[in-house]
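Internal tracking record. Fields below are filled automatically when a chain is submitted to the structure queue. Please do not edit lines marked as system-generated. If the sequence contains nonstandard residues, flag them in the REMARKS field before resubmitting.
Queue: standard
Priority: normal
Entity type: single polypeptide chain
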Amino acid sequence: MRILALDFGTKRIGVAVSDELLITAQGLETIERLDPRRDLEAIKKVIADNGVTEVVVGLPINMNGTHSEKTREVIAFVDGLTKSIQVPVKMQDERLTTVQAERALLEGDMSRVKRKGLRDMLAAQFILQAYLAAKKREDTDARDQNA
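SYSTEM-GENERATED OUTPUT FOLLOWS
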């Protein structure tokens, strides 16, 4: 069982996948967006190649909790993705993940050209790690209530 995370951007889709124990997130790749059909085919291939059982997509929410045009664009993408694949698709608040990714790459003294290609993948990794942590908290809370 693996979970796939997507950071849906204007030009690229960052991709990260969990380990089988759902403990860690690893950046996998960056998909250059060409057209919606090809983007979906690339995502389907990643799902099949990695035995993915669930997909989580970063949802860009404004800092004050409101939705933007980008939020609506991601929701439309998720709707299309849900209709195209056989695994559940969920959304995860992605506030500041791109900022975190950019900061991590800058601290690594990476050039602008290299950062551009890795930023989206690293943002997907942060989205997935946050999702895994929230899932673990939910599981722990559920066990505590049943004890």
